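User: Quick sanity check before I run a bigger batch. Here is a single chain. Can you write out its predicted 3D structure?
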Amino acid sequence: MISVHTDIQNGSAALSADEYKIMVLLVDDQAMVGEAIRRALLNEKNIDFHFCTNAEEALAVAERTRPTVILQDLVMPGADGLTLVRQYRASPVLVDVPIIVLSSKEDATVKRDAFTSGANDYMVKLPDIIELVARIRYHSRSYINVLQRDAAYRALRESQQQLQKSNFELQRLTNTDGLTGIANRRYFDDYLNAEWKRARREKLELSLLLIDVDFFKLYNDNYGHVAGDAVLKRVAQVLDGSVMRPADLSARFGGEEFAMILPRTDIAGAHGIGAKICDLIQAQQLPHARSTASQWLTVSVGAACVVPGDEQDVKELIEMADQRLYQAKQQGRNRVVWQ
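Assistant: Done. Predicted structure follows.
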């Protein structure tokens, strides 16, 4: 039989507590008591019974059978019943399993000690059958409900985590350029607008680099579109590797054009990063036979920087960087124009 504890922990808690099998474990050295309780439970619906007479084996038997309630005798050869109660409570498997202590007499001090040790209930044996069954069902249902609640909570958390993971992945795909793997134009626009507002609010410098692959159409014509895509990926990797701070963003601006947003960076800093990108791209030594700028693939960069004023629009920064990119091309490419 698969225990209720295992079923619920595996997430199959679809039945009501009344429909789950109740597993009663009696730990008592007296065979007469064991037989009497077995008979009392024999015809009870959804109740299974297990009997352990050896105190030394009680903990292992309980962990193996996974009961929904333990009936524990107080006086057993070789062990004090309350010691066993404390051992159950120390077990990760049994820590929440209800324990009904069976005593030979009604004694306030013994009862107090039983509850202090971790017992949930106290009965004098042999108890009235109707009362015994009622208490077994009550404690078992309570325990099963706890397991179901915990299983439902775990399932909810797993569902929430999976949804969050899916949302993150969807957001990543929405914001990422499919070819190069860096930010796409849509995310670039959103990010630049956000940083523009921040820079205007805090009176900070905001720099922008526009980067164009030199003679890219000629590269495609000469080496093919597959090679051209590979080059765009390589350029994107170089740009992404040049990002030095968490706030900096590299993006594909469109076609063979890329961009880099540099918050809190002055024009000298922007020029330095642009020059570094030019050097890193040329250092890749990707042959470009039809380029007049170099035997290797190169890029041109336009750099711009502003402290946004209240009446300025973010388009002014883009247009400034675009004009300087145009100047870099006019001046022979493979360079940064920044003033």
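The longest helix spans residues 129-175.

User: Great, the batch can go ahead then.
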